[in-house]
Design brief:
With 173 residues, the chain is an alpha+beta fold. The strands form three sheets. Strands 1-3-8-5-6 form a five-stranded mixed sheet, with no helix packed on it. It has a five-stranded antiparallel sheet with strand order 2-9-4-7-10, with no helix packed on it. The C terminus is likely disordered.
């Protein structure tokens, strides 16, 4: 009897360990979400742990909301994510204007990028940062500022541009 009882305890222990391992593994593979609401006239934000490597399994969203009638200038001054292909299937940043949900005005970037900028089409911008389970890098540093209606058609669309700077809230080329 003693041998059977020991064997039963061993089997129960192994089953418990396997169940705990399975739950821990599943929990670690679930995307960790983080949500941030930015409402100041200007500000900064960065990927988690920046400038150190960002964590795996992230799904973070920064919602930038400014006064109605105003627009947002967003600049990524530092940008280094995992690169796989041009469609960015692994780690990526996606910028969109929630008031204009068309896929044609969403910008998706990954890999190493020189500084790049985006102008909103409304008073809202959404920045989504998604990471997978493998490679990580330093991530990104972003700055945003509010500007009024510039009266120019090409500044009122969600466009990515290279090498822009924010100086005291004004766009400089």
């Amino acid at each position: 009897m003693e041998t059977i009882e020991r064997l039963a305890v061993i089997i129960i222990s192994i089953c418990t360990l396997l169940a705990n391992y399975s739950m821990t593994t599943s929990a670690n593979q679930m995307p960790r979400s983080c949500a941030h609401s930015l409402t100041d006239l200007q500000g900064n934000f960065s990927s988690p742990n920046y400038p150190s490597s960002y964590p795996h399994h992230l799904n973070c969203i920064w919602s930038i909301t400014v006064t109605p009638g105003s627009y947002i200038y967003l600049q990524f001054s530092k940008f280094s994510l995992e690169y796989g292909r041009s469609d960015c299937p692994f780690d990526y940043v996606e910028v969109s204007d929630p008031n204009y949900p068309s896929r044609s005005i969403q910008i998706k970037r990954c890999g190493y990028q020189s500084p790049w900028s985006v102008w909103s089409k409304s008073n809202l911008l959404r920045v989504r940062f998604v990471t997978d389970f493998s490679v990580s890098a330093s991530g990104f540093m972003a700055h945003y500022a509010t500007y009024g209606n510039p009266g120019s058609g090409n500044c009122l669309s969600l466009n990515a541009t290279q090498n822009k700077e924010i100086l005291t809230g004004h766009v400089q080329e």
